[in-house]
Amino acid sequence: MSSSNNARDNGDERAGTTGNPRRADAPPARPTLTVGIVGHAFMGNAHSHAWRTAPRFFDLPLRPERAVLVGRDAYRASQAARRLGWAAAETDWRRMIERDDIDLVDICTPGDTHAEIAVAALDAGKHVLCEKPLANSVAEAEAMAEAAARAAARGIRSMVGFTYRRVPAVVLAHRMIAEGRIGRIHHVRAQYLQDWLADPDVPMSWRLEKDRAGSGALGDIGAHIVDLTRYITGEELTGVSALLQTFVRERPLPATASGPATGGSLTGTGGDGTGEVTVDDATVFIGRLEGGALATFEATRFALGRKNALRIEINGSLGSLAFDFEDMNVLQFFDGSEPAATAGFRRILVTEPEHPYVSAWWPAGHGLGYEHGFTHQVVDLIEAIAADEDPVPSFADGLQVQRVLDAVERSAAADGSWTRIPR
């Protein structure tokens, strides 16, 4: 944090934000972490909500201050800043990075801009939170990981935004496997199923352009199940055999066109004609974990009826665990030591105060939602920065996921041939 930030009052309600003097017994003001965000569409909205909410529910060592929002269009950026609670708007992320009072840069743009913004911010001494996938290529991800390593030597921290790691039920699954509750892992089955592209009349967007998005379902949602497999099992994938498929090759151009800076705009030329889809609509691949377990993966945006079905099941020598994000407050657990006459999957409602993150929220049984993962991400990042520790998942984690995605694409291009994943 800049020295000016450290001297700033944290605006705690107990300090009297209406101008009343601070009570003599009130705790001292906490240092401020001044944040700038690049992008204000889907992910920009989710991240903005998290920066606002985290200090209101969690006792944080630093108080985040939403200083500036960056978007390509000045009017839209100013409107977004006002709506989302950012103090100012800017149209050039470089000018935001040049500001001495900015401590952290939050990147919520398409993948083709991640590397340039992240490396510049880290080299300028700013902490960085970057949306997933980390980059559009292994080379870009390597450059980002190298910049993160250089910055870490100076106490500058970085994190990649795999927010499903912050779902309490997922954290519980990770802990149970680390404790040996299901024994040696034999199988992993991971799916991420959506249907928002099943209609061929859905218009073109940047997510369907390889030079902007890097890949389609593979990077957009497949990256999540790759990362969750690594996180929950604690093991790396060693190789894959894969197929990619594009079902709709051309789509109508949207009626509204704008440029690349905001991270959520559609592309096109005013609604006339069609555009070429240059990414995958779906992928399936098999893999092997370093401990010998077999894994299957499926990511598609063409599974009619499935809205956000991120599912993962792990079978071990002593039991099994299963999770489905469409029932996100529940973890299914099978204990293989129980008598066959009464054995079965047990439904664990992960809403007790003993469960990860939950004590800051609602009474038991009052479930959490999609947005809470982003809030927990902010909490973990702030705590790591305050403790002068590297947060996880790191840019090195993001690089390893990128290597898996790259291996999937290379395997699919070679008719599914077995492709090893470098470490």
Provide the spatial order of strands within the biggest beta sheet. Answer: 16-15-14-13-7-12-11-8-17
Order of helices and strands: HEHEHEHEHEHEHEHHEEEEEEEEEHHE
Low-confidence stretches: 2-24, 257-270
CATH C-level category of the largest domain: Alpha Beta
Report how far apart the termini are: 33 Å
Shape: globular
CATH homology superfamily name of the largest domain: Dihydrodipicolinate Reductase, domain 2
User: Could you say what the CATH architecture of the largest domain is?
Assistant: 2-Layer Sandwich
**CATH T-level topology of the largest domain:** Dihydrodipicolinate Reductase, domain 2
Largest beta sheet, briefly?
A: 9 strands, mixed
Structural class: alpha/beta
Indicate the percent of residues in helices. Answer: 25-40%
Number of helices: 11
Strands, total number = 17
Mean pLDDT: 92
Number of domains: 2
Radius of gyration: 22 Å
Oligomeric status of the shown chains? Answer: single chain
Quick structural summary:
This is Oxidoreductase. By secondary structure, this protein is α/β, with parallel strands linked by helices.
Would you write up a description of this structure?
By secondary structure, the protein is an alpha/beta fold. The protein has 2 domains: 3-163, Rossmann fold (3-Layer(aba) Sandwich), CATH 3.40.50; 164-367 and 395-420, 2-Layer Sandwich (Dihydrodipicolinate Reductase, domain 2), CATH 3.30.360.10. The chain is 31% helix and 23% strand. The protein contains 11 helices and 17 strands. It has helices spanning 3-6, 42-57, 74-84, 93-98, 114-123, 138-152, 168-178, 210-213, 217-233, 370-386, 395-413, and strands spanning 32-38, 63-70, 88-90, 104-107, 127-131, 158-161, 185-193, 237-245, 250-252, 274-276, 282-289, 294-300, 309-316, 319-324, 330-335, 346-349, 419-420. The protein has a 9-stranded mixed beta sheet with strand order 16-15-14-13-7-12-11-8-17. A 6-stranded parallel beta sheet has the order 3-2-1-4-5-6, sandwiched between helices. Strands 9-10 form a two-stranded antiparallel ribbon. The two termini are 33 Å apart. The model is unreliable at 2-24 and 257-270 (pLDDT under 50).
